[in-house]
Design a protein that fits this description.
Blueprint: E1 2-5, E2 9-10, H1 13-29, E3 34-39, H2 51-64, E4 69-77, E5 80-87, E6 90-96, H3 106-109, E7 118-121, E8 124-128, H4 137-145, E9 151-156, H5 163-177, E10 180-185, E11 188-191, E12 194-197, E13 202-204, E14 218-220, E15 244-245, E16 248-249
Parallel strand pairs: 1-3, 2-11, 3-4, 8-9, 9-10
Antiparallel strand pairs: 1-14, 4-5, 5-6, 7-8, 10-13, 11-12, 15-16
C-alpha cells in the first residue's frame, strides 16, 4: 500500500482549505491509496472554521480521490476534537480524541471522547488514535485485541523538541501490539501568536522497524511480507483480571 503523510504548514483557514484540496489531488496523482493529514491542520488551536464547510470540503476532496482513503486530521466540533475518515465522498468513521493534552489546556476546550474507534477498509482493520493518545498503551491494545486492528493511524500536533518522545511512543505501540503504526504530525504553524515547529512523520512495521521514505511524503507499506514480530503479543495475550499488592487484591 502506498501511503502519503502530509508535511503540513498551518496558515489561515481559507488558504488551508484550498491547499488541502490541491495536496489531496497531488497525493492521489502520485499513487497514494491512503492520504493522512495531521491534527487541527485547518485551524490550529486559535482559529475557527464552520464544521459544515469542513465536512463539505472533505467529502468533495474524497469524491475526487476515487477509492483512496482520506484520514482528515481533526477539527474542533463543539466540545470535541474530532478525527474523520473518508472514502468516495462518504464518511467511513469518526473518532473524538479521548486523552486530551492538559499542558495545552485541551480539557478546557474539549470533552474527552467516550469510545475507541476502528473501521474496515479493503479487508484491513484500521484503528484511530490522535496525538496524546499514543502515550496510553491501553488504547492501542484495545484496538488490537478487541477490534482486531492491523494498522494504527495517529495524526498529531506534536512539537519538534519532543520528536524523540513521539517517535519512541509510535515504535512502542507497534512492537507491543504487533501492528503497523503511522504517525502524521503538523510540520509548522505560522499563525500570529501560534508559531509552532512540529515533529516528524514516522511509520513502523509490526516488529517496530522504521519504514523508510524516499521523499518524506510517500511511504510504501508491504503489508503482506513484513517480517513477523519475535513475539505475537495479540496471539499470546493472557487476560489477568486480578492484581495483588502485599498479598491482597487491589
Amino acid at each position: 500500500m502506498r501511503a502519503y503523510l502530509s508535511r503540513w504548514v498551518c496558515l489561515d483557514p481559507e488558504s488551508n482549505l484550498s491547499r488541502f484540496r490541491d495536496e489531496t489531488a497531488a497525493a492521489v496523482a502520485g499513487g497514494a491509496e491512503l492520504v493522512v493529514f495531521p491534527e487541527l491542520f485547518l485551524t490550529g488551536y486559535s482559529r475557527t472554521l464552520e464544521p459544515e464547510r469542513t465536512w463539505a470540503a472533505f467529502a468533495e476532496a474524497s469524491r475526487a480521490a476515487g477509492d483512496a482513503l482520506l484520514v482528515c486530521g481533526s477539527v474542533s466540533v463543539g466540545r470535541a476534537n474530532r478525527l474523520t475518515v473518508w472514502c468516495a465522498g462518504e464518511r467511513l468513521a469518526a473518532y473524538d480524541k479521548v486523552h486530551l493534552f492538559r499542558p495545552n489546556r485541551e480539557h478546557e476546550r474539549w470533552d474527552p471522547g467516550d469510545r475507541y474507534v476502528a473501521f474496515s477498509w479493503r479487508g484491513l482493520t484500521i484503528g484511530l488514535m490522535n496525538c496524546n493518545d499514543v502515550r496510553f498503551p491501553e488504547q492501542a491494545r484495545a484496538l488490537r485485541l478487541r477490534a482486531g486492528a492491523e494498522l494504527l493511524i495517529a495524526p498529531a500536533w506534536w512539537p519538534w523538541r519532543r520528536d524523540h518522545v513521539w517517535r519512541t511512543l509510535l515504535a512502542a505501540r507497534a512492537i507491543e501490539s504487533s501492528v503497523w503504526v503511522l504517525g502524521c504530525a503538523i510540520e509548522a504553524s505560522v499563525a500570529p501568536g501560534e508559531e509552532f515547529a512540529g515533529a516528524g512523520n514516522h511509520v513502523f512495521d509490526p516488529g517496530g522497524e522504521p519504514v523508510r521514505t524516499p521523499d518524506d511524503r510517500f511511504w510504501e507499506l508491504d503489508l503482506a511480507s513484513a517480517v513477523a514480530p519475535v513475539v505475537d503479543t495479540a496471539a499470546q495475550f493472557v487476560d489477568i483480571a486480578q492484581v495483588e499488592r502485599d498479598g491482597r487484591s487491589v
